[in-house]
Amino acid sequence: MKRQNVRTLSLVVCTFTYLLIGAAVFDALESDTESKRWEILSDMKNGLVRKYNITPEDYHMIEIVIIENKPHKAGPQWKFAGAFYFATVVLAMIGYGHSTPVTVGGKAFCMAYAMVGIPLGLVMFQSIGERLNKFASVVIRRAKCYLRCNTTEATEMNLMFATGMLSSIIITTGAAVFSRYEGWSYFDSFYYCFVTLTTIGFGDYVALQNDQALTSKPGYVALSLVFILFGLAVVAASINLLVLRFMTMQAEENARDEDKDSSRIVLPIDAHPLAGRQRSHEDQASVCSCNCLGNKQCEGGALLPAPARRAARPPDLAERASV
What we know:
By secondary structure, this protein is an all-alpha fold. Helices cover 76% and strands 1% of the residues. It is built from 11 helices and 2 strands. A two-stranded antiparallel ribbon has the order 1-2. A hairpin with a 2-residue loop joins strand 1 and strand 2. Helix 4 packs across helix 8, helix 5 packs across helix 6 and helix 5 runs antiparallel to helix 8.
């Protein structure tokens, strides 16, 4: 089995093992809390129904009104500021789910917009990531020259360290900003920044959803959009380095496998270096036998065909052959 097949199989096994471990850990951490919350909510629901004598139909309508009213706390979601925020979330593949199109035309346009916008966004983030890596390599080279290091070239590990540090700075700074404006704890803000820049986008924490922020705080809206776009570009730079490293390893293994396959190739008999010598020896032996027999079957050291050999016989031998 080739090394590539072994590596692919190992990645599949490791991924499924990682999924199983993650499921077990989340089950252990969240299952009990989920059960307790469900019991508390059920008790509160039953208490409200008994206290105000609410029918199941009325309670269901109240739930619908409360759920549908939740996105409107931030103000109009589909004016230009909110629509631009939604378009950014779609193009970046974050998908908070805080607001979704309702009309048929809006849903159709969203699908068409995403089909074109997502590849465009991926190419843009990848290109910006490459430029950031180039800028980081220049800075690292100059820093090494200033420090008089033995090697001044920026290695892959140096670039990965630089982009990792920049990503950490962006996430920690963004967490402080969102904690200040949204009223979240710093840990929750850090969690929001990480989920956003990794394009997971659960939607449990979404910025710009309080105090009519989309219409009353344009500076904060611009800061949030810059954070998303620039942060995704930095994360794309880190991913670009990992992809390049993986492709380099794969190319090296492919070249190694090709060298092994070429060393196992068996040459055919005609292509064997000794085949020409053996054939020349056979030709020389046939010529020598012809000359040693003293007949005229060979002409110029070459063996004549059968009609030419008959014609080359002496007349008396030809007559005897005919009789």
